[in-house]
Specification:
Blueprint (H helix, E strand, L loop, with lengths): L15 E3 L9 E6 L9 H15 L8 E4 L3 H13 L3 E6 L4 H9 L3 E5 L4 H16 L2 E2 L6 H9 L1 H8 L7 E4 L5 H13 L4 E7 L4 H4 L33 H9 L2 E7 L1 H15 L5 H16 L5 E6 L21 H7 L10
Parallel strand pairs: 2-10, 3-4, 3-6, 4-5, 7-8, 7-10, 8-9
Antiparallel strand pairs: 1-2
Helix pairs in contact: 1-2, 1-5, 2-3, 5-7, 6-7, 7-9, 10-11
Length: 348
Protein backbone atom coordinates (compact mmCIF):
# COMPACT_ATOMS: atom_id res chain seq x y z
CA UNK A 1 0.00 0.00 0.00
CA UNK A 2 1.03 3.62 -0.46
CA UNK A 3 -0.08 7.20 0.09
CA UNK A 4 -1.52 9.01 -2.93
CA UNK A 5 -1.80 12.73 -3.59
CA UNK A 6 -5.27 12.24 -5.08
CA UNK A 7 -7.66 9.52 -6.21
CA UNK A 8 -6.06 9.73 -9.66
CA UNK A 9 -2.91 8.07 -8.36
CA UNK A 10 -4.89 4.87 -7.80
CA UNK A 11 -5.73 4.38 -11.50
CA UNK A 12 -4.13 1.26 -12.95
CA UNK A 13 -1.99 -1.49 -11.42
CA UNK A 14 -4.97 -3.85 -11.45
CA UNK A 15 -4.47 -7.46 -10.35
CA UNK A 16 -4.01 -10.56 -12.48
CA UNK A 17 -5.92 -13.42 -10.85
CA UNK A 18 -5.81 -17.15 -11.59
CA UNK A 19 -9.03 -18.91 -12.57
CA UNK A 20 -9.40 -22.19 -10.72
CA UNK A 21 -12.82 -23.84 -10.95
CA UNK A 22 -13.81 -22.62 -14.43
CA UNK A 23 -10.51 -23.23 -16.20
CA UNK A 24 -10.05 -26.50 -18.12
CA UNK A 25 -7.42 -28.88 -16.79
CA UNK A 26 -3.89 -28.36 -18.03
CA UNK A 27 -4.32 -24.70 -18.98
CA UNK A 28 -3.20 -21.65 -16.99
CA UNK A 29 -6.07 -19.17 -17.27
CA UNK A 30 -5.76 -15.72 -15.70
CA UNK A 31 -7.94 -12.62 -15.70
CA UNK A 32 -6.97 -8.96 -15.33
CA UNK A 33 -9.70 -7.39 -13.19
CA UNK A 34 -10.16 -3.75 -14.22
CA UNK A 35 -12.93 -3.31 -11.66
CA UNK A 36 -10.09 -2.58 -9.21
CA UNK A 37 -9.72 0.86 -10.79
CA UNK A 38 -11.19 3.54 -8.49
CA UNK A 39 -14.44 3.99 -10.44
CA UNK A 40 -14.69 0.36 -11.38
CA UNK A 41 -13.65 0.02 -15.01
CA UNK A 42 -10.81 0.02 -17.53
CA UNK A 43 -12.12 3.37 -18.81
CA UNK A 44 -10.65 5.14 -15.77
CA UNK A 45 -7.31 4.76 -17.56
CA UNK A 46 -8.68 6.33 -20.75
CA UNK A 47 -10.26 9.21 -18.85
CA UNK A 48 -7.07 10.14 -17.03
CA UNK A 49 -4.93 9.68 -20.14
CA UNK A 50 -6.95 11.92 -22.47
CA UNK A 51 -7.39 14.70 -19.91
CA UNK A 52 -3.72 14.82 -18.93
CA UNK A 53 -2.65 14.75 -22.61
CA UNK A 54 -4.99 17.66 -23.38
CA UNK A 55 -3.67 19.64 -20.42
CA UNK A 56 -0.10 19.05 -21.57
CA UNK A 57 -0.85 20.10 -25.16
CA UNK A 58 -2.85 23.15 -24.12
CA UNK A 59 -6.03 21.96 -25.84
CA UNK A 60 -7.81 21.91 -22.48
CA UNK A 61 -7.82 25.23 -20.62
CA UNK A 62 -8.29 25.65 -16.85
CA UNK A 63 -12.00 25.55 -15.99
CA UNK A 64 -13.05 24.63 -19.53
CA UNK A 65 -16.02 22.27 -19.85
CA UNK A 66 -15.21 18.75 -21.02
CA UNK A 67 -17.66 16.79 -23.15
CA UNK A 68 -17.78 13.20 -24.41
CA UNK A 69 -20.23 10.67 -25.82
CA UNK A 70 -20.29 7.52 -23.73
CA UNK A 71 -22.16 4.33 -22.96
CA UNK A 72 -21.32 5.02 -19.33
CA UNK A 73 -17.93 3.79 -18.14
CA UNK A 74 -15.87 6.47 -19.93
CA UNK A 75 -18.26 9.10 -18.61
CA UNK A 76 -17.96 7.76 -15.08
CA UNK A 77 -14.18 7.79 -15.34
CA UNK A 78 -14.19 11.31 -16.78
CA UNK A 79 -16.54 12.45 -14.01
CA UNK A 80 -13.98 11.27 -11.45
CA UNK A 81 -11.06 12.96 -13.22
CA UNK A 82 -12.96 16.19 -13.89
CA UNK A 83 -14.21 16.37 -10.30
CA UNK A 84 -10.66 16.08 -8.99
CA UNK A 85 -9.26 18.55 -11.53
CA UNK A 86 -12.16 21.06 -11.35
CA UNK A 87 -13.45 20.77 -14.92
CA UNK A 88 -17.20 20.87 -15.57
CA UNK A 89 -18.28 17.74 -17.48
CA UNK A 90 -21.16 17.12 -19.86
CA UNK A 91 -21.73 13.68 -21.34
CA UNK A 92 -24.12 12.55 -24.05
CA UNK A 93 -25.48 9.04 -23.72
CA UNK A 94 -28.03 6.99 -25.67
CA UNK A 95 -31.04 6.33 -23.47
CA UNK A 96 -30.85 2.51 -23.69
CA UNK A 97 -27.78 2.26 -21.48
CA UNK A 98 -28.30 1.33 -17.85
CA UNK A 99 -29.90 3.88 -15.51
CA UNK A 100 -27.31 3.35 -12.78
CA UNK A 101 -24.61 4.66 -15.11
CA UNK A 102 -26.27 8.02 -15.65
CA UNK A 103 -27.03 8.30 -11.93
CA UNK A 104 -23.40 7.60 -11.05
CA UNK A 105 -22.20 10.32 -13.42
CA UNK A 106 -24.67 12.84 -12.01
CA UNK A 107 -23.67 11.87 -8.46
CA UNK A 108 -20.07 12.73 -9.42
CA UNK A 109 -21.20 16.15 -10.64
CA UNK A 110 -21.53 15.59 -14.40
CA UNK A 111 -24.46 16.63 -16.55
CA UNK A 112 -25.94 13.84 -18.67
CA UNK A 113 -27.71 14.65 -21.95
CA UNK A 114 -29.64 11.64 -23.25
CA UNK A 115 -30.13 10.90 -26.94
CA UNK A 116 -32.87 8.69 -28.45
CA UNK A 117 -32.12 4.97 -28.51
CA UNK A 118 -33.03 4.85 -32.21
CA UNK A 119 -29.90 6.86 -32.99
CA UNK A 120 -27.63 4.48 -31.04
CA UNK A 121 -23.97 5.44 -30.61
CA UNK A 122 -23.63 7.56 -33.76
CA UNK A 123 -26.37 9.92 -32.52
CA UNK A 124 -24.78 10.48 -29.13
CA UNK A 125 -21.41 11.17 -30.77
CA UNK A 126 -23.03 13.62 -33.21
CA UNK A 127 -24.71 15.41 -30.29
CA UNK A 128 -21.40 15.70 -28.42
CA UNK A 129 -19.69 17.18 -31.48
CA UNK A 130 -22.50 19.71 -31.93
CA UNK A 131 -22.39 20.77 -28.28
CA UNK A 132 -18.60 21.11 -28.32
CA UNK A 133 -18.70 23.35 -31.40
CA UNK A 134 -21.62 25.43 -30.15
CA UNK A 135 -20.23 26.11 -26.67
CA UNK A 136 -16.47 25.91 -27.16
CA UNK A 137 -16.15 22.84 -24.95
CA UNK A 138 -13.27 20.37 -25.08
CA UNK A 139 -14.33 17.13 -26.82
CA UNK A 140 -12.18 14.20 -25.68
CA UNK A 141 -12.94 12.10 -28.83
CA UNK A 142 -12.31 8.79 -27.11
CA UNK A 143 -12.85 6.77 -30.30
CA UNK A 144 -10.10 8.56 -32.25
CA UNK A 145 -7.85 10.08 -29.59
CA UNK A 146 -4.34 8.60 -29.67
CA UNK A 147 -3.91 9.55 -26.01
CA UNK A 148 -6.40 6.77 -25.24
CA UNK A 149 -4.18 4.07 -26.78
CA UNK A 150 -1.01 5.73 -25.47
CA UNK A 151 -2.30 5.48 -21.91
CA UNK A 152 -2.80 1.74 -22.31
CA UNK A 153 0.68 1.34 -23.80
CA UNK A 154 2.15 3.14 -20.77
CA UNK A 155 0.07 1.39 -18.12
CA UNK A 156 -1.99 -1.69 -19.04
CA UNK A 157 0.59 -3.14 -21.40
CA UNK A 158 3.50 -2.48 -19.05
CA UNK A 159 1.63 -4.17 -16.20
CA UNK A 160 1.01 -7.25 -18.35
CA UNK A 161 4.62 -7.44 -19.50
CA UNK A 162 5.84 -7.08 -15.91
CA UNK A 163 3.37 -9.64 -14.54
CA UNK A 164 4.51 -12.27 -17.03
CA UNK A 165 8.20 -11.37 -17.09
CA UNK A 166 10.29 -14.53 -17.05
CA UNK A 167 7.25 -16.59 -17.97
CA UNK A 168 5.32 -17.12 -21.18
CA UNK A 169 1.99 -15.63 -22.18
CA UNK A 170 0.51 -17.57 -25.07
CA UNK A 171 -2.80 -15.71 -25.55
CA UNK A 172 -4.17 -12.29 -24.63
CA UNK A 173 -7.97 -12.10 -24.94
CA UNK A 174 -9.94 -8.84 -25.05
CA UNK A 175 -13.07 -7.23 -26.42
CA UNK A 176 -13.19 -3.72 -27.82
CA UNK A 177 -15.19 -0.57 -27.20
CA UNK A 178 -13.11 2.37 -28.38
CA UNK A 179 -10.19 0.11 -29.31
CA UNK A 180 -7.87 1.98 -26.93
CA UNK A 181 -7.01 -1.05 -24.81
CA UNK A 182 -6.70 -3.22 -27.92
CA UNK A 183 -4.38 -0.83 -29.76
CA UNK A 184 -2.33 0.27 -26.79
CA UNK A 185 -1.63 -3.23 -25.47
CA UNK A 186 -1.35 -5.17 -28.73
CA UNK A 187 1.38 -2.96 -30.18
CA UNK A 188 3.50 -3.41 -27.04
CA UNK A 189 2.93 -7.17 -27.04
CA UNK A 190 3.86 -7.35 -30.73
CA UNK A 191 7.18 -5.72 -29.93
CA UNK A 192 8.07 -7.20 -26.55
CA UNK A 193 6.12 -10.49 -26.41
CA UNK A 194 5.79 -11.42 -30.09
CA UNK A 195 4.81 -15.02 -29.32
CA UNK A 196 1.64 -13.86 -27.55
CA UNK A 197 -1.42 -14.31 -29.76
CA UNK A 198 -3.93 -11.45 -29.68
CA UNK A 199 -7.53 -12.69 -29.56
CA UNK A 200 -10.39 -10.21 -30.03
CA UNK A 201 -14.00 -10.88 -29.08
CA UNK A 202 -17.05 -9.15 -30.54
CA UNK A 203 -20.82 -9.70 -30.24
CA UNK A 204 -22.27 -12.37 -32.51
CA UNK A 205 -25.17 -10.00 -33.28
CA UNK A 206 -22.81 -7.17 -34.18
CA UNK A 207 -19.89 -8.81 -35.93
CA UNK A 208 -18.46 -5.66 -37.43
CA UNK A 209 -14.85 -6.80 -37.66
CA UNK A 210 -15.60 -10.18 -39.18
CA UNK A 211 -18.10 -8.69 -41.65
CA UNK A 212 -15.30 -7.49 -43.92
CA UNK A 213 -17.24 -4.27 -44.58
CA UNK A 214 -15.19 -1.09 -44.25
CA UNK A 215 -16.42 1.69 -41.97
CA UNK A 216 -17.48 4.93 -43.67
CA UNK A 217 -15.46 7.77 -42.11
CA UNK A 218 -15.21 11.52 -41.93
CA UNK A 219 -11.92 13.30 -42.61
CA UNK A 220 -11.03 13.30 -38.89
CA UNK A 221 -11.40 9.53 -38.67
CA UNK A 222 -14.75 9.57 -36.90
CA UNK A 223 -17.57 7.38 -38.16
CA UNK A 224 -19.70 9.01 -40.83
CA UNK A 225 -22.59 6.56 -40.49
CA UNK A 226 -23.62 3.43 -38.58
CA UNK A 227 -21.96 0.23 -39.75
CA UNK A 228 -24.34 -1.92 -41.83
CA UNK A 229 -23.45 -5.10 -39.89
CA UNK A 230 -24.52 -3.70 -36.52
CA UNK A 231 -27.47 -5.10 -34.58
CA UNK A 232 -28.37 -4.33 -30.97
CA UNK A 233 -26.60 -6.52 -28.40
CA UNK A 234 -26.47 -6.72 -24.57
CA UNK A 235 -22.74 -6.00 -24.13
CA UNK A 236 -22.90 -2.36 -23.03
CA UNK A 237 -19.57 -0.65 -23.71
CA UNK A 238 -18.54 -3.22 -26.32
CA UNK A 239 -18.76 -2.67 -30.09
CA UNK A 240 -20.71 0.53 -30.78
CA UNK A 241 -22.65 0.78 -34.04
CA UNK A 242 -19.47 1.72 -35.88
CA UNK A 243 -15.83 0.60 -36.01
CA UNK A 244 -13.81 3.18 -34.06
CA UNK A 245 -10.68 4.52 -35.72
CA UNK A 246 -8.48 3.14 -32.95
CA UNK A 247 -9.91 -0.33 -33.56
CA UNK A 248 -9.47 0.01 -37.32
CA UNK A 249 -5.84 0.94 -36.73
CA UNK A 250 -5.28 -2.44 -35.07
CA UNK A 251 -6.85 -4.24 -38.02
CA UNK A 252 -4.42 -2.38 -40.29
CA UNK A 253 -1.51 -3.31 -38.01
CA UNK A 254 -2.31 -7.01 -38.65
CA UNK A 255 -1.52 -8.05 -35.09
CA UNK A 256 -4.84 -9.80 -34.39
CA UNK A 257 -4.55 -13.58 -34.58
CA UNK A 258 -8.22 -14.46 -34.18
CA UNK A 259 -11.63 -12.81 -33.81
CA UNK A 260 -14.29 -14.72 -31.83
CA UNK A 261 -18.00 -13.97 -32.07
CA UNK A 262 -19.76 -14.23 -28.70
CA UNK A 263 -23.56 -14.75 -28.37
CA UNK A 264 -25.25 -12.40 -25.90
CA UNK A 265 -26.48 -15.21 -23.62
CA UNK A 266 -22.90 -16.45 -23.22
CA UNK A 267 -21.84 -13.09 -21.81
CA UNK A 268 -24.70 -13.14 -19.28
CA UNK A 269 -24.00 -16.74 -18.30
CA UNK A 270 -20.27 -16.36 -17.81
CA UNK A 271 -20.61 -13.18 -15.79
CA UNK A 272 -22.78 -15.13 -13.33
CA UNK A 273 -20.44 -18.14 -13.46
CA UNK A 274 -17.46 -15.94 -12.56
CA UNK A 275 -19.41 -14.54 -9.61
CA UNK A 276 -20.75 -17.84 -8.27
CA UNK A 277 -17.79 -20.13 -8.96
CA UNK A 278 -14.78 -17.81 -8.68
CA UNK A 279 -16.12 -14.96 -6.53
CA UNK A 280 -15.22 -12.45 -9.28
CA UNK A 281 -17.95 -9.81 -9.70
CA UNK A 282 -17.92 -8.33 -13.19
CA UNK A 283 -20.27 -7.14 -15.93
CA UNK A 284 -21.64 -8.54 -19.17
CA UNK A 285 -18.71 -7.44 -21.32
CA UNK A 286 -16.34 -9.19 -18.94
CA UNK A 287 -18.49 -12.31 -19.08
CA UNK A 288 -18.44 -12.20 -22.86
CA UNK A 289 -14.66 -11.77 -22.99
CA UNK A 290 -14.29 -14.64 -20.56
CA UNK A 291 -16.53 -16.81 -22.76
CA UNK A 292 -14.05 -16.15 -25.57
CA UNK A 293 -11.13 -17.02 -23.32
CA UNK A 294 -12.77 -20.33 -22.45
CA UNK A 295 -13.06 -21.14 -26.15
CA UNK A 296 -9.36 -20.43 -26.55
CA UNK A 297 -8.57 -22.52 -23.48
CA UNK A 298 -10.57 -25.47 -24.79
CA UNK A 299 -8.47 -25.58 -27.96
CA UNK A 300 -5.08 -24.47 -26.61
CA UNK A 301 -2.20 -26.94 -26.15
CA UNK A 302 -1.69 -28.26 -22.62
CA UNK A 303 0.43 -25.94 -20.53
CA UNK A 304 -0.74 -22.81 -22.36
CA UNK A 305 -1.09 -19.54 -20.45
CA UNK A 306 -4.01 -17.24 -21.24
CA UNK A 307 -4.80 -13.75 -19.94
CA UNK A 308 -8.33 -12.40 -20.29
CA UNK A 309 -9.32 -8.76 -19.78
CA UNK A 310 -12.33 -8.16 -17.50
CA UNK A 311 -13.25 -4.51 -18.16
CA UNK A 312 -15.72 -3.53 -15.45
CA UNK A 313 -17.75 -4.29 -12.34
CA UNK A 314 -21.15 -6.00 -12.22
CA UNK A 315 -22.83 -3.13 -10.38
CA UNK A 316 -23.13 -1.22 -13.68
CA UNK A 317 -25.74 -3.79 -14.77
CA UNK A 318 -28.30 -3.98 -11.94
CA UNK A 319 -31.11 -2.74 -14.20
CA UNK A 320 -30.11 -4.92 -17.17
CA UNK A 321 -30.98 -8.53 -18.12
CA UNK A 322 -27.91 -9.68 -16.17
CA UNK A 323 -29.91 -9.33 -12.95
CA UNK A 324 -33.36 -10.11 -14.39
CA UNK A 325 -33.57 -13.50 -12.68
CA UNK A 326 -32.10 -12.33 -9.36
CA UNK A 327 -35.02 -11.74 -6.96
CA UNK A 328 -35.22 -8.93 -4.41
CA UNK A 329 -37.58 -10.89 -2.12
CA UNK A 330 -36.86 -14.20 -0.40
CA UNK A 331 -37.11 -17.32 -2.51
CA UNK A 332 -38.93 -20.45 -1.33
CA UNK A 333 -35.63 -21.94 -0.22
CA UNK A 334 -34.79 -18.82 1.77
CA UNK A 335 -38.20 -18.80 3.43
CA UNK A 336 -37.68 -22.45 4.39
CA UNK A 337 -34.33 -21.58 5.96
CA UNK A 338 -35.98 -18.73 7.89
CA UNK A 339 -38.71 -21.02 9.21
CA UNK A 340 -36.21 -23.63 10.38
CA UNK A 341 -35.81 -21.64 13.64
CA UNK A 342 -38.57 -19.86 15.59
CA UNK A 343 -37.36 -16.22 15.78
CA UNK A 344 -37.66 -13.23 13.45
CA UNK A 345 -40.03 -14.68 10.88
CA UNK A 346 -42.33 -12.78 8.54
CA UNK A 347 -45.99 -13.75 8.55
CA UNK A 348 -47.00 -16.29 5.88
Amino acid sequence: MARFESILGTVGNTPVVRINRLAPAGVNLYVKIEAFNPLGSVKDRLALGVIEAAEKSGELKPGQTVIEATSGNTGIGLAMVCAQKCYPLVVTMAEQFSVERRRLMRFLGAKVVLTPSTGRAVAMVTKAVELAKTHGWFLTRQFENEANADMHSRTTAREIVDDFKGDKLDYWVTGYGTGGTLKGVSRVLAKEMPNTKVIVCEPEDASLLTSGIAQERNADGSAAAPHPAFKPHPMQGWTPDFIPKLTADVIDMKVIDRIIRIPGPDGLKMSMELAQKEGIFVGITAGATFAGALRVAAEAPKGSTILCMLPDTGERYLSTPLFAEVPADMTADEVAISRSTPSAQFPA
